[in-house]
Amino acid sequence: MSSNVYTSDVTVDTATREQLVESIRLREQRLAANVDELVGRLHPKALAARAADSAKSLIIDESGSPRVERIAAVGGAVLAAAGVIGFLAFRGRRG
């Protein structure tokens, strides 16, 4: 194993104690900021907001008006699923 361990632009072989301490402190700050960002991205409220925005963008276009063709397609799919479920329920009662 090499004794030349890199911490940012400073190596253990050439750095002073103060440079290494500062390099470690800066690295800890960057890691803490990255962890905070990840926690924020994975927070349930953030996930729900992104999912809602994604779903809304499927139904509403950029100008804010509804996308009629997509609404009709979703409505048709819901009606078809209800019809299949109703048919299967009716068929199950008869048999």
Structural account:
There is one protein chain. The protein is 73% helix and 4% strand. By secondary structure, it is mostly helical. Strands 1-2 form a two-stranded antiparallel sheet. β1 and β2 form a beta hairpin. It is elongated, with a radius of gyration of 29 Å.
Characteristic terms for this protein:
95 residues; mainly alpha; two-stranded antiparallel sheet; 3 helices; 4% strand; disordered N terminus; transmembrane; DUF3618 domain-containing protein
SSE topology string: EEHHH
User: How many helices in DSSP terms?
Assistant: 3
Shape: elongated
Q: Look at the helices and sheets and give the structural class.
A: mainly alpha
Percent of residues in helices: over 70%
List low-confidence stretches: 1-6
Number of strands: 2
What is the mean predicted local confidence, pLDDT?
86
The largest sheet has its strands arranged as 1-2
Q: Separation of termini?
A: 75 Å
Radius of gyration: 29 Å
Proportion of residues in extended strands: under 5%
Largest sheet: 2 strands, antiparallel
Organism: Brevibacterium salitolerans
Pfam family, one: DUF3618
Protein name: DUF3618 domain-containing protein
Transmembrane segments: 71-90
Provide a brief overview of the structure.
The chain is mainly alpha-helical and 95 residues long.
What's the topology here?
Elements: E1 6-7, E2 10-11, H1 17-42, H2 44-59, H3 68-94
Antiparallel strand pairs: 1-2
